[in-house]
């Protein structure tokens, strides 16, 4: 199914109308077979247009479910409408890449903000994101439903959405979870790379010093149930394998993986096995492919892991420097170290990224794949992807592999819109109490 603004005609109708009108102006000067010739030409030009990756990309609703840009809003006092200045995503690059909607990641570094301070940092990042909309209301629109994304697109505005990355942000409180939802948050990644008090993470699952829970605790299952009730997307990126399966068993609504790739191609614990991909498809959810080279290219992953001891030494020295000042390490400072080591390895091949899209499609199906770039949260994207302006290259590469315009409309945003609608349709509305009933 192709998702567009409801008032727009589909691509074939639009091109047929334009070409037919052009053909009609030529009819008086051509012979008796001019109508047939014009029809043939119209058909050829329509087919050419619908197979043109630029036309297909620009006629799609393009949605990215994960970018870590909010840290820039808060720590660097940088605005989304400013020049990139070393980043991977801003308003101009989004417009150039026809990116229509972005889920901004509200991520609190647990190593820099203690458990009892994570909510404050979460609220600061939410505020920083909402402030972007307030400062540029002519360009940006806060969206909390699928229909609002389409409405913003129709108005020519960039859709701003939010997702919390890491369940530690709720500080074991369903009340805080509900408050975040009231502020506009529409997904939560159950864990980040750290196991929290109610869900195991893939990031530390092999660390014997960490207390694990064998997946979700009973409270963790309550969190999933409450997210279902609210109509909040349950995000299983970052979770351990056992947590994933507990979520699949617990949830009453489709799930998303906001930024995960395929473990069959790149053996990172953060990636999803083929069995998991099939389970998400059965759940009618969607897997959004991550752009981090360590998750999409096995050779790059091994080189990155080999650099870990040296990277950690520099990160520890940086942390000691900021701790002496009584300050948390800003992401821009730690990211500078990671970028240095990433530059020493070089860029991962662009084809490695495309291979992950292709694999997820072949295993889970075209209805269960999307884009989760991880822009501004990774040290470097793969070759050919420097910013959101380069997203049309994804469409061109996949169409070169034989995927159709309809396939691309689904992958670029249609699948996420479907899941978003399904999750919110499953939301449990409070009962309507007639006057005189209840106390």
UniProtKB/TrEMBL annotation:
<dbReference type="InterPro" id="IPR032466">
    <property type="entry name" value="Metal_Hydrolase"/>
</dbReference>
<feature type="signal peptide">
    <location>
        <begin position="1"/>
        <end position="36"/>
    </location>
</feature>
<dbReference type="GO" id="GO:0006508">
    <property type="term" value="P:proteolysis"/>
</dbReference>
<protein>
    <submittedName>
        <fullName>Membrane dipeptidase</fullName>
    </submittedName>
</protein>
<dbReference type="InterPro" id="IPR008257">
    <property type="entry name" value="Pept_M19"/>
</dbReference>
<dbReference type="GO" id="GO:0070573">
    <property type="term" value="F:metallodipeptidase activity"/>
</dbReference>
<keyword id="KW-0732">Signal</keyword>
<dbReference type="Pfam" id="PF01244">
    <property type="entry name" value="Peptidase_M19"/>
</dbReference>
<dbReference type="InterPro" id="IPR000180">
    <property type="entry name" value="Dipep_AS"/>
</dbReference>
């Amino acid at each position: 199914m192709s998702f567009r603004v409801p008032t727009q005609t589909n691509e074939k109708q639009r091109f047929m109308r334009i070409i037919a009108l052009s053909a009609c102006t030529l009819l008086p000067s051509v012979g008796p077979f001019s109508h047939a010739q014009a029809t043939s030409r119209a058909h050829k030009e329509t087919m050419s247009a619908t197979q043109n990756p630029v036309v297909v990309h620009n006629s799609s609703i393009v949605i990215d479910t994960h970018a870590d840009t909010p840290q820039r809003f808060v720590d660097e006092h940088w605005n989304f409408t400013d020049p990139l200045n070393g980043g991977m995503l801003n308003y101009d690059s989004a417009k150039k890449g026809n990116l229509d909607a972005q889920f901004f990641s509200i991520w609190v570094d647990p190593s820099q903000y203690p458990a009892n301070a994570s909510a404050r940092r979460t609220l600061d990042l939410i505020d920083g994101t909402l402030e972007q909309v307030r400062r540029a209301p002519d360009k940006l629109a806060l969206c909390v439903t699928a229909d609002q994304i389409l409405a913003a697109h129709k108005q020519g505005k960039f859709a701003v959405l939010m997702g919390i990355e890491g369940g530690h942000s709720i500080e074991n409180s369903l009340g805080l979870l509900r408050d975040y939802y009231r502020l506009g948050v529409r997904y939560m990644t159950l864990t980040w790379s750290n196991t929290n008090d109610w869900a195991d993470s893939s990031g530390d699952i092999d660390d014997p010093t960490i207390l694990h829970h064998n997946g979700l605790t009973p409270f963790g299952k309550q969190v999933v149930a409450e997210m279902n009730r609210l109509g909040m997307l349950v995000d299983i990126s970052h979770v351990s394998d056992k947590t994933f399966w507990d979520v699949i068993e617990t949830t009453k609504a489709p799930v998303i993986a906001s930024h995960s790739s395929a473990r069959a191609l790149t053996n990172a614990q953060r990636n999803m096995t083929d069995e998991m991909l099939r389970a998400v498809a059965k759940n009618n959810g969607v897997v959004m492919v991550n752009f981090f080279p360590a998750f999409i290219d096995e050779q790059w992953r091994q080189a990155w892991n080999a650099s870990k001891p040296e990277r950690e030494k520099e990160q520890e020295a940086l942390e000691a420097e900021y701790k002496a000042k009584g300050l948390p390490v800003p992401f821009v400072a730690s990211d500078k170290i990671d970028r240095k080591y990433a530059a020493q390895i070089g860029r991962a091949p662009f084809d490695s990224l495309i291979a992950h899209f292709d694999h997820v499609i072949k295993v889970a199906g075209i209805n269960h794949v999307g884009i989760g770039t991880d822009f501004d949260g990774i040290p470097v994207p793969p070759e050919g992807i420097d910013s959101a302006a380069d997203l049309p290259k994804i469409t061109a590469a996949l169409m070169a592999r034989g995927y159709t315009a309809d396939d691309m409309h689904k992958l670029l945003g249609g699948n996420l819109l479907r899941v978003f609608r399904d999750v919110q349709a499953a939301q449990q509305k409070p009962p309507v109490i007639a006057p005189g009933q209840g106390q």
